Prior knowledge:
With 211 residues, this protein is of the alpha/beta class. The protein has six helices and 14 strands. The chain starts with a strand and ends in a 6-residue tail after the last helix.
Amino acid sequence: MKLHVLPAGPIQTNAYLLTAPTRGEAVLIDAPGGVWEQVRAILDAEQCRLTELWITHGHWDHMQGGAEVVRASGARVSAHRADQVLIETPEVMKKFMDEDLGLEPVKVDRWVAQGDRLDALGTTAEVRQVPGHCPGSVLFYFKDQHAAFVGDALFRQSVGRTDLPGGSFAQLEQSIRTQIYTLPEGTAVYPGHGPATTVGAEKAGNPHVRG
């Protein structure tokens, strides 16, 4: 499995394209605005087909490009039902934005929940719920690859904001302690913004939630 980090959209949200060239398959985690052009170039170069789009949570910057991705690829969309309104009727987010970004709804094909296993690319990802930043926040943990894609729950030396509707620092802290810090310390943590980190590094040095 190959990992491509693709920052895109107005606030440089990380999308993660996972490809398996030997299988001709690919999975995209989150879809910021305009990311499809980057994704398409890699798919063409590696002769892969995008089969899955997994959304970590419903905030606009993580799903802005989702409709374009689905139209172009036919990928199946997975997300948590607690964010259904945000993903499928994104106009509700306009009141919290400084400009109209023309958000399009994304139809979710599969609702995921705590403990679900998603088979893709010849391996399996575990779904863990990490609410606090957003009610439907989930992470995707690939045990075999020692990697967790956590959306905006945790960043390097920081955590997701909790001042938006549905946010709660107490809930986020619990999510981090029970769902992220319980992963092996060598696990790479790939956040929705900024550089990657590890579980061990955040447990030891994150000033917001210590391990």
